[in-house]
Design goal:
- By secondary structure, this protein is an all-alpha fold.
- The protein has 2 domains: 29 residues; 35 residues, no CATH class.
- Helices cover 57% and strands 0% of the residues.
- The protein contains 2 helices and no strands.
- The radius of gyration is 17 Å and the shape is elongated.
Length: 65
Amino acid sequence: MGFWVFMMFMDLLIPFTMLGFGKYFIKNAPKEINMVFGYRTTRSMRNKDTWNLNSRIIGNKDCLC
C-alpha cells in the first residue's frame, strides 16, 4: 500500500510543480529581455519593440510590457 501512495505522489509531483511555476511567473514575470524566458531568437531579442511584438504574437502574456 505504501508503495502505491509513493507512486501517486511521484506522478502528481510534476503537474503540481508546473502549476506552481506558472502561477509564480504570472505574478513575477521577467521585465527585461533575457536568455531564459520568452520567445528567444536572435532577431526577436534585438530590442524591446521586437521582443514585445514577438511575445505578443507567440502568446507570452508575461512580456507585454
